[in-house]
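Hello Y.,

Per our agreement to keep a running log of every chain we model this quarter, I'm adding this entry. I've kept the format consistent with earlier entries: sequence first, then predicted structure.
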Amino acid sequence: MTEIGQATKQLIEEGFCVVDGELPAGQLDILRGWSDDWLDNTEFPAKWKYQGSDIKLRGTKTGGATANNFESDAMVDFLIEHPDKLLKRLGLYDFGSIGLFQIIAKPGRSPGLYWHQDWMKWNDPVSLSPWCQTVFLNWYLTDTNRKNGCLRVIPGSHRRRVDLHQHLIPPHEGGGYEVDETNEWMFQDHPDAVDVDVRAGQLVIADARLLHGTHPNTTDERRTLLLGWFFRRDTRPPKWWSDDVPEEIVDRDPLLKTKWTRQPGGYLR
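Predicted structure for the entry above:
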């Protein structure tokens, strides 16, 4: 685990970092019991094969379009509000939650999650931003390593094109649900990949553009994490940013509207 200053540097340069989740005493056990209740009482559709589970819950304070048909739960309010000070210390001071959290639990003896990235705005020049625009937070409720399905990432792939980019099938509903486990690219043991081992209660923060997946869970025990998405609406550089800004972002029309896509284009170099 890195100190806050080092974590921010790693997040910008490599696309991810691991920090102490700073959970209050006893909160980890509360989150474990809460997530177990949801997992034990939810039917797992076949499409969750690679993710393990994908239970989406909104906070009780969430309204508008984000609410959709998802059930609300007050625990999500805690998960949204608790990391606020931590994110600000990392320089992510103008980030807000989308209002949802997901319970992602990989059962024992289950396959890994395929390589993918979750950025949806590859048609927008803001894709070139050296700072983060959208991040995901993974709260790990169990010690996690290669054996029980830890996260694996390709550092720097949030801003640098690698061979995988041109071969990957869009994730989840984009085609990933139907991918065969023998797909040589989607599950490749990539030479640049690193495993992200974490202890229970630690928090992984990663750029949505980062290529990531997981190892299979080869143990008999369930591995659980809580996943939340946080983003900044402003496409201009953060106030603390002092390095160069790509010309395409400087010249970007602030009213620009682009079609969302997960497929990287010319703004990934």
